[in-house]
Amino acid sequence: MTEELIAGQYEKMDVNKSGFIEMNEYTRAVDQGIVDITQSPYKDVFPIIKNWSQYWPKGYNGIDFNTSSDMFLRGEVAMIMRTSGQSKVIYESSARKFEIAAFPLPYLTKENHPDAVGKLMEIGGVPAGNMAIPKTIKPEKLDAAVDFMAFITSSKVQGMHAEKLYRTPAISNADLPEKLKGFAFVGDPMKLNIYGGEVDKNVTENNQKMGQLYLEGSLQADKYLSDLKKVMLDFVKQKKDENKWNAENNYGIK
């Protein structure tokens, strides 16, 4: 949800205009206070989640991934959140005695928050199993590499990946099975997932632990966010020291 509130700030962070928020750009944004989770709109998402949690099953903080799958298959809960790949075991389970279907997550609108971009920011916007042709490829192998990439990203092969592996295709015109149409991308890919492990795993882990305490009412929002901000700043300081990044050299951004 955070990305739906901060997407309007991407332009301030994407200094080199690559279309992505790279690590040195993230470092700059946090260091200069562009990203500050104790301020709006960052902090505003947490009360929204807490309000949403009233509809979650009793004891949700103690329910792990596999347990939630079992609860769904037994009909004890009406919905679970899964990626397309994670849905494979649900679709193929012999324990399931009812029809199921997938649909995209709902997104925030201006009615929920004035900074909401009004569309889903897809956390799955980067395909699994990424492949690319490196700049160092030998000239005599380039044509074959291009042919292979064209083959692997063809609508037929991407459709096969969806059918067999339950992977959401990397292209929009794939032969998508009916059961996976609810996983098709309908929004924009995230440019920065500040709570994702690919940015800072310490922020991810602390957010999960402190977030549970916040949702159960034993940790106040101000304390939660100020402590999490300290973890974020420690990581940024580490990155600055490791790479000799600072405001004077524009954090190594070219």
Uncertain residue ranges: none
Total discrete domains:
2
Strand order of the largest sheet: 1-2
Q: Would you tell me the structural class of the helices and strands?
A: mainly alpha
C-alpha termini separation: 30 Å
Number of strands: 2
What level of helicity do the residues show? 40-55%
CA radius of gyration is 21 Å
Question: Per CATH, what is the topology of the largest domain?
Answer: D-Maltodextrin-Binding Protein, domain 2
Our count of helices gives 10
Biggest pleated sheet: 2 strands, parallel
CATH architecture of the largest domain: 3-Layer(aba) Sandwich
Question: In words, what does this structure look like?
Answer:
With 254 residues, this protein is mainly α. The chain has two domains: 2-124 and 188-252, D-Maltodextrin-Binding Protein, domain 2; 139-183, no CATH class. The chain is 41% helix and 2% strand. It contains ten helices and two strands; from the N terminus they run ααααααβααβαα. It starts with a helix and ends in an 11-residue tail after the last helix. The mean pLDDT is 91.
